[in-house]
Amino acid sequence: MKKDFIAVIDYSSKELTKILDLADDMKKHPKKYAKSLQGQTLGMIFTKNSTRTRVSFQTGIFQLGGQGLFFSANDLQLSRGETIYDTAKVLSRYLDGIMIRTFKHSDVTELAQHASIPVINGLTDFNHPCQAMADMMTIREKFKKLKGLKLTYVGDGNNVTLSLMNACIRFGLDFCSISPKSHTLASELIAAGEKDAKSAKVKLTFTDNIAEGMKGSDIIYGDTFTSMGQEAESAKRLQALGPYKVTPEVMAMANKKAVYMHCLPAHRGEEVANEVIDGKQSIIFDQAENRLHAQKAIMYTLMKKRK
Ligand code: CP
Ligand code: NVA
Question: From 154's CA, which of 89, 106, 131, 255 has a CA 20 to 30 Å away?
Fold first, then answer.
């Protein structure tokens, strides 16, 4: 296993499956793991807002017998110009792990490079790997399998899209992204994905045609049209992405037993209609719950001290 959890694609299918199996067991038998990270402290650095990630990590480390320490953007000397290098070196002397949510992905990789303790990526502008792990756990719970399913992401090609694509590649799901040409994933990310998908025998599709993309889909996935840090562009984004709202008519183009997922927070009426996100096919709260179990499994995997 690697020291850090920064991207899904850094791990093999076998390693990721082991984490999901552990997450399932932790969900079923939480007491069995109550002391597994006893006495350990997870530092949690957030320079962006969070509900799920913050609460599930802090609760998760507590449920494993440890404690979480929360730092918002202004708390650390980092915000006054102390270097990531010095921060990494110092925090490694106190803590057993660091979870960080921030803007620049390179800040996370730099932190991980200089820290001697595990660093977990809780979202950057580039990706959101913990989310994708909880999503795969949720899909496996609902469908009792992952291989061969088709996951279709609808909307802005962003951090969540990238981690989902990579998780699909590792777990053997076909992945489709439906978005206007102006808001699809960057071409170099698509090219890298296609290379990985080929060796994994997974099909990737990028289209701006809703009916074409929805066909044969088992999972429909949504996210906000305006990610954190993009607020100034929100009117422009809404205009470009508005036609890609998931409505009941759009859902009807997918498989009959398709489910609707969303990483949350949702903007009801923008990327998704109320009837869909609050409807029978929606599994958003099971999905949100699984952030807790999947992240406990990630922390356990990286932080458990082996004798
Ligand atoms: N999905 C997710 O990461 O939610 P938060 O921004 O609330 O942490
Ligand atoms: N793409 C969204 C995800 C929020 C969990 C954002 O980065 O704001």
Answer: 106
